[in-house]
């Protein structure tokens, strides 16, 4: 009996130990999951609070809202409530608004400026006098950028040397004193994949090697990660410090809009078709000789300005002008198939390729002049090419773009 009893005791202990080993981890795992889910829920709630706080800052009270056919909501915001005036140093601009002095054109060079048309007001919708149109930002817009600090920023592509992932096909004028730039661009709908973007634009740049680059930029881009679609959209951009700050459109305090008819960030309609009708926009950035601010005009519409106070080197002048296209793509092994321009190479010419024509710069006397000493450059011409020329009607021009990935671009 003693022997049997001695054998039963370890057997009972073994059962208890086995039970403990089998089920304790499950209880721990359940507890871990509950704690983890609670933490994740708490983090998500905290993130949404931060996002909602940010939305309250940038989505201003409106007197009217317009639902665009593409799904955008355009808010008509009173002029003095726009984001720029959140900066105390810009509040004085509310009461001292003076119309800028437009650059003078030489009589024999004066031409028409194609008007911009946008989807949100194609059917006659408009914002009341005293208001400006601002594309409403949603929580989803911010979530797609993965962080509030990244929202509205541009992936740095104008660094010297360029940041990896950026490819350009540009005509460039350097080593001069420039007070503005003008060009007429045709508008396309390139195919853009993943987190990529595709741009056709003007860059006005002040770059001193020992200091961060200053830029003001304008053009059209396709940027699905920001807008959730592949539509070409008008944009303006600025940075005072090498793309560390600054932003697109009115997504942070900076640019001051005065125009009620054009919405930065809204889609452009109609767009060019291959071997068909070409639709263009005329873009002009210039430094007002009276205020020193950098002004923006699209077509014949004066949109607004970047106050000189935002910048360091651009407070004085620019020393570089770029015209053309840019594609940003994450490095995923093979070359991206995101298109630039029309998605066709420049040698296909008018009606088939993207162009920028009537390339001009503003001099210190506030005159528009044809650019001289235009240099063309493409990092990977078998992916995105560029060529240039001159004619009486078009002045200096470039054709640029391409399909990206192809047998000669791997």
Map the helices and strands.
Elements: H1 2-58, E1 64-67, E2 73-78, E3 104-105, E4 131-135, H2 139-143, E5 166-178, E6 180-186, E7 197-206, E8 214-222, H3 224-227, E9 233-239, E10 247-248, E11 256-257, E12 280-287, E13 294-298, E14 301-306, E15 318-328, E16 354-362, E17 367-370, E18 375-378, E19 385-391, E20 395-401
Parallel strand pairs: 3-17
Antiparallel strand pairs: 1-2, 2-4, 5-15, 5-18, 6-12, 6-16, 7-8, 7-15, 8-9, 9-10, 11-14, 12-13, 13-14, 16-17, 16-20, 19-20
Give structural notes:
Strands 3, 6, 11, 12, 13, 14, 16, 17, 19 and 20 form a ten-stranded mixed β-sheet that branches. Strands 10-9-8-7-15-5-18 form a seven-stranded antiparallel β-sheet. Strands 1-2-4 form a three-stranded antiparallel β-sheet, with no helix packed on it. The chain has helices spanning 2-58, 139-143, 224-227; strands at residues 64-67, 73-78, 104-105, 131-135, 166-178, 180-186, 197-206, 214-222, 233-239, 247-248, 256-257, 280-287, 294-298, 301-306, 318-328, 354-362, 367-370, 375-378, 385-391, 395-401. It contains three helices and 20 strands. The model is unreliable at 1-40 and 157-161 (pLDDT under 50). 16% of the residues lie in helices and 31% in strands. The termini are far apart. A hairpin with a 2-residue loop joins strand 13 (294-298) and strand 14. It is α+β, with helices and mostly antiparallel strands and 410 residues long.
């Amino acid at each position: 009996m003693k022997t049997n009893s001695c054998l039963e005791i370890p057997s009972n202990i073994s059962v208890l130990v086995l039970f403990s080993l089998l089920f304790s981890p499950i209880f721990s795992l359940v507890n871990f999951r509950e704690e983890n889910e609670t933490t994740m829920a708490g983090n998500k709630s905290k993130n949404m609070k931060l996002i909602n706080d940010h939305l309250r800052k940038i989505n201003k009270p409106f007197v009217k809202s317009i639902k665009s056919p593409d799904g955008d909501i355009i808010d008509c915001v009173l002029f003095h409530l726009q984001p720029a005036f959140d900066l105390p140093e810009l509040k004085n601009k509310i009461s001292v608004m003076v119309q800028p002095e437009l650059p003078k054109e030489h009589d024999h060079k004066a031409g028409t400026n194609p008007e911009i048309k946008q989807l949100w007001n194609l059917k006659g919708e408009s914002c009341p006098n005293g208001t400006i149109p601002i594309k409403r930002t949603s929580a989803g817009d911010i979530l797609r950028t993965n962080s509030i600090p990244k929202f509205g920023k541009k992936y740095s592509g104008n660094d010297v040397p360029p940041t990896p992932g950026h490819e350009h096909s540009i005509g460039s004028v350097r080593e001069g004193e420039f007070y503005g730039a003008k060009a007429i661009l045709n508008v396309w709908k390139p195919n853009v994949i993943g987190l990529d973007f595709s741009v056709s634009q003007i860059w006005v740049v002040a770059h001193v090697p020992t200091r961060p680059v200053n830029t003001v930029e304008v053009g059209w881009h396709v940027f699905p990660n920001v807008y959730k679609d592949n539509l070409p959209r008008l944009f303006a951009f600025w940075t005072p410090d090498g793309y560390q700050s600054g932003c697109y459109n009115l997504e942070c305090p900076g640019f001051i809009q005065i125009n009620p008819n054009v919405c930065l960030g809204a889609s452009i309609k109609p767009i060019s078709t291959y071997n068909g009708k070409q639709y263009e926009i005329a873009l002009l950035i210039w430094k007002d000789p009276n205020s020193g601010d950098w002004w923006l005009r699209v077509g014949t519409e004066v949109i607004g300005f970047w106050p000189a106070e935002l910048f360091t080197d651009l407070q004085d002048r620019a020393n570089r002008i770029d015209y053309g296209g840019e594609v940003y793509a994450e490095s995923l092994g093979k070359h991206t198939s995101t298109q630039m321009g029309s998605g066709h190479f420049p040698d296909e010419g008018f009606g088939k390729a993207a162009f920028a024509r009537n390339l001009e710069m503003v001099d210190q006397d506030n005159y528009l002049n044809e650019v001289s000493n235009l240099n063309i450059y493409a990092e990977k011409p078998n992916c995105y090419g560029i060529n240039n020329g001159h004619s009486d009607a078009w002045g200096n021009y470039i054709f640029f773009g391409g399909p990206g990935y192809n047998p000669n671009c791997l």
